[in-house]
Amino acid sequence: MTKNISGFSKLSKEEKIDWLSNNFFQNPTDAVNIIKQYWNENQALQNLHDDFIENTITNFYMPFGIAPNFLINGKEYVVPMVTEESSVVAAASLVAKFWSTKGGFKTTVLGTKKIGQVHFMFAGKKADLEKYFQENKTELFAATASITKNMEKRGGGILDIELIDKTDKLANYYQLHITFETKDSMGANFINSCLEAIANKFRNDEIEIVMSILSNFVPECLVRAEVSCKIEDLGVENPQKFAEKFYQAVKIAEIEPYRAVTHNKGIMNGIDAVVLATGNDFRAIEAGAHAFASRSGKYTSLSHCTIDNGIFTFWIEIPLAVGTVGGLTSLHPMAKMSLEMMQNPTAKELMQIMAAAGLAQNFAALRALTTKGIQHGHMKMHLQNILNQLGATKNEKNTLIEFFKNQTVSHAAVVSKFNELRTPKITWVDFLDESFIRQKLESLSLDSKPIFGLMNAQQMIEHLSAITKIANGNWQVDVFVSDEKSATRKPFLDTENELEIGFKPNLLAEEPNPLQFESIEKAIDDLIFQVQLFVSNFNENPTKTVVHPFFGELDFDYWKKFQTKHFTHHFKQFGLI
């Protein structure tokens, strides 16, 4: 049965949710509950969010973080960042604080021009087209007068209109290339409205308008951010070596596209987070930045570095077409709050803040890569996410965070340590504690029932003695364990794992051995004697080794590890621990 639907947009929100949950979820009730738990209790605010896009059914939360200590052109900023990626906010904060003691970020807006284009086809003579354009250029400006009036009052508007010949790339293809200044507005709607008015005025019977649209490639809407200090002030153990490696890392990103893409992605981690927090268009910013990185015909780094005359300098030049008025920046309460916490910057100031955030993020990533490695810091920040996924309690989180302070964090390591915390602790038997061993074993009788296995209580005690005799040399067993097998089996003794139920070396019979002593008491005495002999024999010859019938050749320490596991195994057999 088809799940296509007609008139979906005309359904109420509740009707949309009902149709969606009943057709695409195995448990519709759970799906509806999740959708509704993200609704805002304030109905007016929820209605505002519902109207941002079409077919809205709920809100999708993203973490909103704060990076303090940014010093930009001598002015202190707190920078809001919206991102799902751990370590981004922490890295930006740490780097901002680091550079705030060294003069902070120096930023300059190199240009604010934005571009729109009318794409059209013309099959006639180029000279005729050029004449037509020159004769009508003033009229093209006039066609947008009603649209540009308010923008011009703020110092913006259309800067120029050019006729561009692209027929060498595509037959009969020309364009009107129009330059705009939109001041504090991102200006997408303004630019597109102007372009449509210009296209309508420019078209004639010989000119076929294909489309009119702004460009997100804005190489003249450019900002530069820079940090610099003496190499000796870089705050690492070997600053000259660090500076050289850092410089090499940037140079690699300049010449190697595979590295440059990841390098620039790190820059955009910082920039996109601020773009999102301020309600700007991060897709447009991303597209423009990556196009700018490719402007030479080869994809390259957006940031650059020098280490000349003992001075470390690191900078970025990047196109950022952003706005602080209009659109979502004026509608979304959190976007408005973000701008307020940054002291209500102009579009130019916001460009500079974003560039500084991108440079900070890039510095943090390269510093990590050229010192401890990117995963060291990233995975520590990711630790909280892993613990949340595992459902760790507050106490478990505190324990694991403390444990991993000086440990390398990996997903596997965290899961292993978490499982270790959740696994009931093993009470290992101290087989050298004579008083404890006697007390536990003397509670047994021939009528004591084992939890597993076939041996009765006395047979179990005599079995512990027999295995101890092997270590003492009092039971000569004809057994050979190859080095290869020993190498794979012996590491088990170093683990916290227990002997499995049913563990049995080949030399042992399937059925329990006949009793050797007339009572449990005498069997216990013999076991205590064998353990004492075990210790004294190895004390007399600390370097000796004795072959274990399963694990191979073991020294005193490994025999103790085996005996601990073995005694624990059989004490559990009779519920003694």
UniProtKB/TrEMBL annotation:
InterPro entries: DinB/YfiT-like, DUF1569, HMG_CoA_Rdtase, HMG_CoA_Rdtase_bac-typ, HMG_CoA_Rdtase_cat_sf, HMG_CoA_Rdtase_CS, HMG_CoA_Rdtase_NAD(P)-bd_sf, HMG_CoA_Rdtase_sub-bd_dom_sf. Its EC number is 1.1.1.88. Pathway: Metabolic intermediate metabolism; (R)-mevalonate degradation; (S)-3-hydroxy-3-methylglutaryl-CoA from (R)-mevalonate: step 1/1. The keyword Chaperone does not apply. Gene3D superfamilies: 1.10.8.660, 3-hydroxy-3-methylglutaryl-coenzyme A Reductase, Chain A, domain 2, dinb family like domain. It is an enzyme of class 1 (oxidoreductase). The keyword Oxidoreductase applies. SUPFAM superfamilies: NAD-binding domain of HMG-CoA reductase (SSF55035), Substrate-binding domain of HMG-CoA reductase (SSF56542). GO terms for molecular function: hydroxymethylglutaryl-CoA reductase (NADH) activity; hydroxymethylglutaryl-CoA reductase (NADPH) activity. It comes from the Bacteria. Belongs to the HMG-CoA reductase family. This is 3-hydroxy-3-methylglutaryl coenzyme A reductase.
